[in-house]
Specification:
By secondary structure, this protein is α/β, with parallel strands linked by helices. It is built from three helices and five strands.
Length: about 140
Amino acid sequence: MIMRIAVASQNFRTITPHAGVTRRFLVYEAVPGQPLREAARLDLPRQLAMREVARTAPHPLDAVDVVLVGSAGPGFLRRMEERGIAAVVTSETDPLGAVAHYLAGTLALAPTDRHSGDDDRSPCYGVRLRARRRMGRKAC
């Protein structure tokens, strides 16, 4: 059972904020009992930044179960939820460390961005049952 976790990283070294406009992601694969593995690096064109993509259009992130980001507004969180992807906002800056902490249930969470009309939501607003089921435990 493989879990795919994308990490927003514009420089491929640190976790970056502004998830809706992020176009670069590190993708890790987690298999129980095996070390984490970087499976891919997504370097998407501008038109595939999540805020530019139609809600029903396919997107490369559709292949992941979880996305870890430095900051995200309610629009990004809703879009991830609609796609069945757990979106988690973290204050962690190291991508591999963040994935390891996420899997261990010890990830440092950060509040979501507050835009007008936003309500108080947890950093794990987009966590879906699918992600929880895949690893056999609560995702956040």
